[in-house]
Amino acid sequence: MTQAEAANRYSMTKQRVYGIMQRFRAMKGGLPTRWRKVEVWLPPELAAEVEAMAEATLKEHRADKASTERLNKLLSFSLKIP
Predict the structure, then answer these.
(1) Which residues lie below 8 Å from residue 4, measured CB to CB, with a gap of 6+?
(2) pLDDT in tens, 6-44
(3) Is the pTM of this model over 0.85?
(4) Taking the CB of the first residue and of the last residue of the chain, which one, N or C, has fewer CB atoms within 10 A?
(5) CA–CA distances in Å: residue 78 to residues 7, 24, 42, 74, 81
(6) In 11-43, which residue ranges form alpha helices assigned H by DSSP?
């Protein structure tokens, strides 16, 4: 089903369906749901700076997520005393 067909079927605008799909793709990719993809034209120097910021932020997010998952595993560990 295309986004246009989904919009028609569920009485939504195509833009609304597009937004929902973007959020779904972000969640599937492990990104926070409130993050937004930004596409703009920039001079090469600024583009490189923004790309570096995006990469660093994504690495930090993934490291935080991995740390949280490890902590959750540790906290969920229970000792069984015979």
Answers:
(1) 14, 17
(2) 899 999 999 999 888 887 777 777 777 777 778 899 999
(3) no
(4) C
(5) 48, 34, 53, 9, 9
(6) 14-28
